[in-house]
């Protein structure tokens, strides 16, 4: 997966993504929404992306274009972050919508999910807001 751009099939236009390598690791841009309907697809994308990220690197899940993320999707992201950390990969989320930030807080996941306002901050390890 590394070394070229990988795109999902946006056949239903609900959830699709594009992954591309950077020197720090891997950035996965996610579009659409993540809800109970497509959480299995979300979990598969997270697992495949984490597996493609080199040990000692950063996996940035760029959700800046997401319209919605369910609490279940965030729990899956938090679980992947823990699993990835054991494999030497740091998972960071880029999220801009205040509504999704509220879901992170309301689900009690602010300590488990490293949320950043932009890709630059996520790659450089800047403190989440």
Helix-strand blueprint:
Elements: E1 6-7, E2 15-22, E3 25-34, H1 39-52, E4 58-69, H2 71-86, E5 90-94, H3 98-106, E6 115-116, H4 119-124
Parallel strand pairs: 3-4, 4-5, 5-6
Antiparallel strand pairs: 1-2, 2-3
Helix pairs in contact: 1-2
Gist of the model:
This protein has 129 residues and is α/β, with parallel strands linked by helices. It has helices at residues 39-52, 71-86, 98-106, 119-124, and strands at 6-7, 15-22, 25-34, 58-69, 90-94, 115-116.
Q: Can you say what the CATH homologous superfamily is?
A: STAS domain
User: Per CATH, which architecture?
Assistant: 2-Layer Sandwich
Binned strand content: 25-35%
What strand order characterises the main sheet?
1-2-3-4-5-6
Nearest-angstrom radius of gyration? Answer: 13 Å
CATH topology grouping: Transcription Regulator spoIIAA
Structural class: alpha/beta
Largest pleated sheet? 6 strands, mixed
- Number of H/I helices: 4
Low-confidence stretches: 1-6
InterPro entries: Anti-sigma_ant, STAS_dom, STAS_dom_sf
Family: Belongs to the anti-sigma-factor antagonist family.
Organism: Mycolicibacterium peregrinum (Mycobacterium peregrinum)
Protein name: Anti-sigma factor antagonist
